[in-house]
Amino acid sequence: MHTPQHILDKASELKSWLITHRRHLHKHPELSFQEVETKKYIRQVLQGLGLFVSDITETGLATTCHGANSGPYVALRADMDALPIQENTAYSYASVNRNVMHACGHDVHMTCLLGALHILNDLRSEFSGNVLGVFQPGEEILPGGAIKVIESGIFGKYQPRLIIGQHVMPGQATGTLGFRPGHYMASTDEIYISVKGKGGHIAVPSLTQDVVSAAAEIVISLKQKITKEAGDIPVVIGFGKTEAQGSTNLMPTEANLTGTFRTMDEKFRSHAKNLIHTIVKQIAEQYGTVAETNIVKGYPALNNHTLFTKEAMHYAGELVGNQNIIKLEKRMTGEDFAHYARIMPAVFYRLGIAGNNAGENNVHRPDFDVDEEALVYGSASMAWLALKFFKRL
After folding, report:
1. 3-state DSSP call for residue 163?
2. Number of separate domains in the chain
3. Do residue 131 and residue 109 come from a single domain?
4. Which residues pair with 134 in a beta bridge?
5. Residues 8 and 20 in one domain
6. Would you state the pLDDT for residue 355?
7. pTM (2 decimals)?
8. What is the CATH number of the domain that holds 147?
9. Is 146:79 a contact under the CB 8 Å cutoff?
10. 313 and 290: one domain?
């Protein structure tokens, strides 16, 4: 019978192996849907463990690990892509690919899934059940690799009863695991607005149409009205880029806005997008301008399966101690793992990586790094949760 300590010990024995693979992956990052060499490397490691590997997308792959007896499939997922960031560290394993960096911990996610598969493969004669390991490309950009994985038919083939994923959490201490049943992360729609009108000399406003003021009022009105309409529903609407090619005395013919709309309620998401179109049109007309609004559909809100996530918290407490289980707050960040949660029960949790740098480190920064002791807990937790859910499902 497997005990939590046994699984932690197995993961600890793999620590140097885990660090070697994590550092290789960190040193050789690849952007979304360009993970060609990453895929080759993961394939070699999995084949070295004696596992069968199959292609599921052009740059993604899957593997299976079978127990001694038949049982349910549990899917374990890791994302593979890096970010377009120039790394600014002096580590021996710093990225060798210019302007590409694993600044969001996907190197850790891949390594922990490899570690979990290693542990489970070593113990395959001792459990009943099956693991489907999914190495997914393109989490960082729309439309996201999760859609492509689903379209590959891999889940229809193996029919997992649960999918589990993890993500690094910089502000969370190493050795802790964070969970939130139910609503956890937001949908992530992108907003592109173009306001067009007659340009000309600013000193002669009667001969121009003020696209800049129209755009400015659109930004303020959308934030106020959508937030008010949402009430208690978590929502974020904001614009990170404004562009108008005028000057001190030149009114431009066009002003462009680029922003995001996020919420955790799919019904309100649909309603709000219609409202955005209406508000933009009304304000543009008030200024005698014409506006075009394009809302690009992003990832859905991520909802963890309530019962299974509560059970996962209990199981994880057995592994790392209940004092090291953190109840997460809702986040307005997004994650394409949400697509999986719409077609099967899902548990998405957070892996503490802070080490001695709690509060000083964050993702999507050129100096991002992790406490590599977290690789042990990430590998052990995925393996342990799979073993526990084999008996539960």
Report:
1. strand
2. 2
3. yes
4. 62, 77
5. yes
6. 75
7. 0.94
8. 3.40.630.10
9. no
10. no
In contact, 209 and 198? CB cutoff 8 Å: yes
Query: Residue 293 corresponds to which amino acid?
Result: T
Considering the domain architecture, whether residues 139 and 254 belong to the same structural domain is answered as no
**What does the alpha-carbon distance between residue 207 and residue 220 come to, in Å, rounded to a whole number?**
26
Domain of 240? 189-296
Domain closes at, from 296, 323, 347: 296
The residue among 94, 157, 170 whose CA lies nearest residue 363 is 170
Tens digits of residue pLDDT in 284-312: 999 999 999 999 999 999 999 999 999 99
Query: What backbone torsions phi and psi does residue 101 show, to the nearest 5 degrees?
Result: -150, 145
In this structure, are 180 and 198 located in the same domain? no
Query: Both tokens of residue 306?
Result: 């309530």
- Tell me the pLDDT band of 362, cut-offs 50, 70 and 90: confident
Kindly indicate the confidence band of residue 16, based on its pLDDT and cuts at 50, 70 and 90: very high
54 and 141 part of one domain: yes
Each residue's pLDDT tens digit, 172-209: 999 999 999 999 999 999 999 999 999 999 999 999 99
Q: Is the pLDDT of residue 264 over 90?
A: yes
Rounded CA gap, 293 and 295, in Å? 7
Q: Which of 143, 139, 188 is nearest to 165 (CA)?
A: 139
pLDDT at 251 over 50: yes
Read out DSSP for 66-112? E-SEEEEEEEEEEE---BS-------TT---STT-B--SSHHHHHHH
